[in-house]
């Protein structure tokens, strides 16, 4: 993402919004019954399940740290944010928070003291979470072991470290909302839509972002800032759209990380391992039904036709493939799924963006270790074997063989993404 953030416009908008930020702290907060968030066995169990669905631990737990005690740093184009402690510690966690305070954070993006939260905490998605689910989450978090770990200050650059700038962002890009069912679609579809659009916050990754970090086009895919992975479009059958998939294969992919048609790697592997594999089959099936129903919004692409120079690159790439790849993926590119995924027709290979293919070849990786796939086969890294030109040739061969017809990869693209950190 280019570092042009429309600072003058942001400050001007912030000044114009100065009056608008004086919302009452309890706006959009409807008090619930204490029975809804009481620490009963049912409430706590439900909240624990919802915490898995929202993958809350992924951000609110530092590597090797206590669960939900915060401390995990999140790099953004605007500086570094550090996830807070959400254990029931009175001083440093949410022990002094009420159920209404917690609902205010999820639904309205505001802390207990009225301070506006940064949207790295995905309240633009969580705003659709129901009050009942918020109360159950609150009941669960009150039962986790309290940690006195102090919260680290964010390290954002000016003016992004100012509440006035955040108020301007909210005025432009955020409005509290609620999930509204579509009765004609049926209960299963609506359950899937609720999970995908709300607690699952899929759009937080699977959307492009503008220069101010606001998601701009639903689930149409985008490069995840800083970490250098592309979250493919869920509304394009040329990327990760699922319109042509069978529902059982979608469910298998989301719950195990592998399927006859695809394997997840990179950031999505963590989502499957830490969140999706723990969900009920009925909920994952509902998500699959919803995702499959999304219309294909991608424009039709012309197949790339290689010229003489590209043909030479492809020939060099074929030799590299035969030396390093053919034993697993086969001479026909069909692989041996799910252990060795096919490369022929593999949309991770043929997408317009070559980022994920570059990352996989250069850095290798594993599908997630899940109950349904406890001993995943890994992809070895080749960054120490292939230089930029060789990797580009190999990738160009993959993108132009066995019916694949995608544009070539340049050495410059490989160089840009070969050393991007995995986390």
Automatic annotation (TrEMBL):
Superkingdom per UniProt: Bacteria
Domain spans labelled Cytochrome c: 42-145, 187-295, 312-402
Record key words, sorted: Heme, Iron, Metal-binding, Signal
UniProt cofactor(s): heme c
Gene Ontology terms: cellular component: membrane
One MF annotation (Gene Ontology) recorded for this entry: heme binding
Keyword Iron recorded: yes
Entry's cofactor comment: Binds 3 heme c groups covalently per subunit.
UniProt key word Iron: yes
Binding site for heme c 3: 325, 328-329
SUPFAM superfamilies per record: Cytochrome c
Residues that bind heme c 1: 56, 59-60
Signal sequence bounds: 1-20
Annotated heme c 2 binding sites: 202, 205-206
Gene3D superfamilies, alphabetized: Cytochrome c-like domain
Protein name in UniProt: Cytochrome c
Organism for this UniProt entry: Massilia cavernae
